[in-house]
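Can you give me the bound-state structure? Components:
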Amino acid sequence: MTPGPLLLTAIVALAAAIVAGLRWPRAWLGLNLLASAAAFGAALSPLLGGPAWEWFGTVTVGGETPHLRVDAVSGIFLVLIAVVGAAGAGYSREYWSDGLHPASAPRSRGWWSGLVLCMVLVTTVSNGLHFLIAWEAFAVCGYFLITLERKRPAARAAGWLYLVASHAGTLGLFAFFSLLAARTGSWDLGPMRENADLAPLVWLVLFGFGVKAGVFGLHIWLPSAHANAPSHVSAIMSGVAIKMGIFGIVRFSGWLPTPTAAGWLVTGLGATGALLGIAFAFAQDDLKRLLAYCSVENIGIILMGVGGAMLAVSQGDAGWGRLALAGALLHVWNHGAFKTLLFLGAGSVLHGTGTRRMSRLGGLWRVMPWTAGFFLLGALAVAGLPPLNGFVSEWLVYLGFFDAVTAKGTSAWVAMPAVLMLALAGALALASFAKAGGMIFLGAPRTPAAARAHECGRWMRGPMLGLAAICLLIGLVPVLFWPMVARAVGAWHPAWNTMEAPAPIATLGSVQAALAGVIVVVAAGLWWRTRANGLRRALTWDCGYATPTARMQYSSGSFAGIGSGWFSLVLRPVRHWRRPRGVLPAGAFRLDRVPDVVLARVLTPMSDLILRCSTAVRRLQHGRLQDYILYVVAGLAVMAVLVSMGGVL
Amino acid sequence: MTPFLEGLLRLAWWLVLAPLLPGLINKVKAWVAGRRGPPVLQLYYDLARLWQKQVVMSTLASPGFLIGPAVAWVALAGAVCLVPLGPVGAMLSFHGDALLMLYLLALARFFTAWAALETGSAFEGMGAAREVSYAILAEAAMVAAMLSLSVQTGSVSLVTMLAPSAGPGAALLAAGLFTVLLAENCRVPFDDPNTHLELTMIHEVMVLDHSGPPLAVILHGAAMKLLLFSVLLTEAVLPMGELSPPAATGVLLAGVLGVTIGVGLVESLLARFAFRRVPLLLTTGVLFCLFALLVAWKGGRA
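Here's the bound-state model for the whole set.
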C-alpha cells in the first residue's frame, strides 16, 4: 500500500480525535491507536525499500500548493511518533483519567491529539510556509499540554519558559525559511545541495531547531518543562517532541550544502552537551529533572553522530560517517523507546507516592514490582549497557569515531576528544541511573508516602511493557532494524545508499542475544543453588547496628556527592545548611540544589539587564504633555539639522 | 577440535586460573612481611566452602540481590571471552569488540552497585557511590588507552590491537593501565581488600551483606576481573604478535605473574591513600593514558 491513503487516514483520525477527546475518551483512544497504526504503516513503506512518496495538492493553502513527502528520513521519525503516541495515549487513559482530573482530562486529550497531528505534519510537509504553520501549532499544543495543571505556579512558569524559548527558536526558523524562499524563489522544499549560496543558512537551522532539540546551552526550557508536565506529556515531549528538532537538523543538513565548520560545531556541541547534560542529571534529586537532563545528554549523542556524518561528507564521504549517522538515527528510536519508558515509570512512581523527589522515596520494589522491573530495564538501556538497545546505537557512534581516529585525517582532532567525552558521559549515565533506580526502588521507604505507595493499573503497565519489549528487541536482534536505518542514511546522503553493513552488527546482535540467554541461565542456577542451600531473612547487617532507621540510608544527594563535586565548577550547586549545635542538637539541616546554570548564570542576568535598561528608558514615558511637545520639537530640530547636513554632505 | 569444545576449554582456563591471582598476591605480601601467609589456593577453598553455605539475605532485599551477582559474573565472563590469550587469540573477535568489553565491565559494575543498594545500608550505599564515581575516571583512562592502541594499530579489534607492543608510549601506557588496574580491582592505594574498617572500603563494603553462593560468585568474578586486567596490561605493553607461540605463552604467563607480584609489592610497601587523594591519583592514570595516546599519534605520523 502506498503511504498516501495511510497518511490520510492518520491525519483524519487525529483530527477527529481532537473533537472526540472532549467527550468520548474510548473513541478518542481508538482513533489515536488507529492513527498510530496508519502512520506506522505509512512510514514503513519507504523504510522497507519502497520509493519515496510525494504528493502535490490541487488547491492552494495560504497561496501555496500543499506538498507532502514521506521518505526514509521522515519515516524514521514517523515511526517514533506513532509508537510513542500510541503508548502515551493508552497510558493517559488511567494516568490522566476523567476520574482523577475531571477539569483537565478532556483538554489533555484534545491537545494530545493536536500535538501528534502537528508532529506528523512537521515530518511530512515539504513546503516552507506550511512547515512553519505546522511547527507553530506544534509548539502551541506543547504549551497547553505542559500547563495542564494550570493552578500550579511551577507548571505555569515552566510553560511560559517553554513558550518563550520555543518562539526564540521559531524566530530563527522564520528567518531561515524566508531567506531560503528568497534565494531559491520558491517555498517548496527538497534536496538543493548544488546551490552553494545556501550554505550559510545552516547556522539558522542549527539555532532554530537546536532550541527545540534541547542542545546544551539552548536547553534552558527543557528541565522545568519536562519535570512539571504530566508524565505522559513529559514522555512524548522528551521521547518525540525534542526529536523534531533533530529531524529538522538531519533533514536540512542532508538537503542543504553544509560548510565544514558546521560539522565541527555540531560534533563539538554534541560531545560537550552529552557530558554536561549527564553531569547535571547526576546531581538532581527530582526524578523527572534527572530524566530531562539525561535527554540533553542523549540529544548530545545523536548530534555527535550527525555532526560526524557532516564532517565525513565534507571530507570526501569517509565511510565512518555512515556509521556515525546510522548510530545517531538508531539512537533516535532507542532514546524514544527507553526515555518514554522511564518517564512513564516516573509517572507511575508519582501516581503511587505523590512525590518526584528521590530522597523521599525508597523500597518501592515491594509494592511496585512491575514499575521497578520496567524502570530497571529502561535504566540499563539508557546507560548504554549490553545486551539492550542503547548499547547498539552508542556502539555504532563510538565505532564511527574510532574509525575516524584510525583514519588519521584532520577530523581525528575532534573525534578523539569526542570519544573521551562520550566515555565520561557513559560512566556518568551509569552512575545516575544506579542512583535513580537504587534510591527509588531499593532499600527501605524513606517517608510514609513511599511506604503507602501502590502499583499502577494495567492501562499504565501495558504501554510500559510494550516499550520494554522494543528496548529488548532492538538490543537482541539489531540486524532486523539495520536495513531501515541504512535506507534513512541513504536518503540523507545518496552516495551512502548501500545496504551492506559496515560493522558486524549481526555478530553484535548474536553476542547480545547469547549474553541475555546466559544471564537467564546463570541467574536461575544461582537462585536454585541458594534455595537448595537454604535462605534465611535477617536484618541488614550494617556492621552490627541493631536498630537502623530509613533515614540512615544513603540519600540521592550523598550518592552523587563525590561525582558532582568534581563538576562543581560547572554545576554551581546552591547549598543551605545549619550545623548541629549544643548537647541536644535540633533543627540541623542541609539542602543542596543544582539549578540550571545557563538559565541562572547567563540568561537571567542578561534579561535582568535588559529589564533594567527598559526601566531606565521608561522614565521618558510619564504622560506630561509639555515634555512630549518638547520631544517632538527636539526631534524635528534634529531632523532639520540632518536634512541640511545631508545637503552639505 | 570443534570450535565449541575449544571455546569451552578456553573459558575453563579463565575460570579455573583466575582465583590463583589473589592467592599469589597474598603470598607476596606475606613474604615481604616475613610471614608464612595463607596457602596460594586459599580462594579456591573459600569458594568451595561458600558454595555449600546457607544464604542470609536482608529483609529489605528484592530478588535483585541474588540476580545482581549472577549478571555481574556473566558480564565479566563475557568480557574475558573477548580478550585474546596470546598465541591462541580470542574466543570471539570482531570490529569493535574492544568497546563491548568495556561496556561489559560497566554492566558488571552496575549490577554490583545495584545489589549493594538493595540492602538499604548506609555503608553499602557509600561503597556503591564510591565505585560508580571513581569508575568515571577509570573509564576515561581505559578509553584513552584503547584509543592509543587503536591509533597505533589502525584497528578496533582487541586481537589486532594487542598484538604488537605499545611502541614508544609503552611505558606511559603501562603506568596508566596499572593505575586503572589497581583502582578497578580495589587494591591498595585505592582500597584495601583486607581492611575491616568499612568507612575506608569501596568494593568490600558493597558486598558486606552477601553470603553463601552469591558471595562466591562475586569473589570469583572479582578474581576474573583481576586476571583480565593483568592479561590486558601484559599484552598491551609486550609485542605478543611478534613472538613464536611457545615464547608468547611464556611471556604472557610471566607478564601476568609480574603484574601480580607488582600488585603484591605495592600493597606491601604503600599505605592506602586518603580518599581525597584518590581522584588525584586516578587523574594521573588518565593523564598517563592520554600522553600514551599523543605519543602513539606522533609515532604514527613520523
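A couple of observations. Chain A is about 70% helix and 5% strand. The first strand of chain A starts at residue 53 and ends at 56.
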